[in-house]
Amino acid sequence: MLNRGMGQYLGLRYTEITPDSVRAHWTIRPDMHQPAGLVHGGVYCAVVESMASVAGTAWLGDRGHVVGVNNNTDFLRAVREGTLHAHSIPLHRGRLQQLWLVNITDEQHRLVARGHVRIQNIIDSAKLGTS
């Protein structure tokens, strides 16, 4: 799950995965920039979604799967290069949904972006993507 798809594209390197906390870091590449040479906001959204999904999956365990249903990400500081760090913590974990907070910081520990992702807990995942 961790080394394919969006996580692979982003180059996320997970350093902690527990039901209560997920940490990862990645290095900015030029293909992650928007036209002005800054990290594209979509990169932050993708990292926030990825972190929350991994965290939600770790918490839900073998009871099912999770899917993001809302991602609200704020971009706080412009970045062009370097390594960024993400940390995900739970705000709510219930029977049907979870809410995770993800903070992204730079190498000087300054907050660069932060997001909240609401996740739906799916117990019968075989029905996902069908009519």
UniProtKB/TrEMBL annotation:
Belongs to the thioesterase PaaI family. One of its GO terms (cellular component) is cytosol. This is PaaI family thioesterase. One of its GO terms (molecular function) is 1,4-dihydroxy-2-naphthoyl-CoA thioesterase activity. Keywords: Hydrolase. It holds the Pfam family 4HBT. Residues 37-113 form the Thioesterase domain. The keyword Membrane does not apply. It comes from the Bacteria. InterPro entries: HotDog_dom_sf (IPR029069), PAAI_dom (IPR003736), Thioestr_dom (IPR006683).
